[in-house]
Write a structure and sequence with these properties.
The chain is α+β, with helices and mostly antiparallel strands and 137 residues long. 25% of the residues lie in helices and 28% in strands. It has 4 helices and 9 strands. The strands form 4 sheets. It has a 3-stranded antiparallel β-sheet. The longest helix is centred in the middle third of the chain and has 14 residues. It starts with 8 loop residues before the first helix and ends with a strand.
């Protein structure tokens, strides 16, 4: 048979290659980080942090290039008081839906605001928990 074995994309990636590679972006300068004219690539936890920040800064459903369940309304929440306690669970839900596009992150844990910073507990594929903070303006 031509296709007798079931394979996945993960099976085709060599073990020593990172599952996710993303480009470093400087949000303050609003441009990609370059070294000698080449974009800087991030992987592992640094790649996951960059991916999460991009997801948090992307307005859900606004850009046709992204899937419908990519992005969230985090920009609306930064630095604001949350009166009814529904905004953070909604943000957590949106992130849990979006992580299917980032192979480094297995699950999203606690999401909370600390001042103008959104703090996210990320459960990585290796089982470790990384706390990612995305600062607001």
């Amino acid at each position: 048979m031509l296709f007798d074995a079931k394979t996945t994309v993960a099976d085709s990636i060599p073990a020593d290659e990172p599952a996710v590679v993303t480009l470093a972006f400087d949000w303050e300068a609003e441009r990609y980080v370059m070294t000698d004219g080449t974009p800087v690539e991030l992987s592992g936890i640094d790649g996951a942090k960059q991916w999460l920040e991009q997801c948090l800064r992307t307005i859900r459903g606004k850009y046709g290039i992204y899937p419908i369940n990519y992005g969230c309304r985090a920009l609306e929440l930064r630095g604001k008081k949350l009166h009814n306690g529904t905004a953070l669970p909604e943000l957590e839900s949106e992130l849990k839906q979006a992580i299917h596009y980032c192979d480094e992150v297995q699950d999203i844990g606690n999401v909370r605001l600390e001042g103008k910073t959104i703090m996210i507990d990320c459960i990585m594929q290796d089982g470790t928990v990384e706390v990612v903070g995305i600062e607001g303006d």
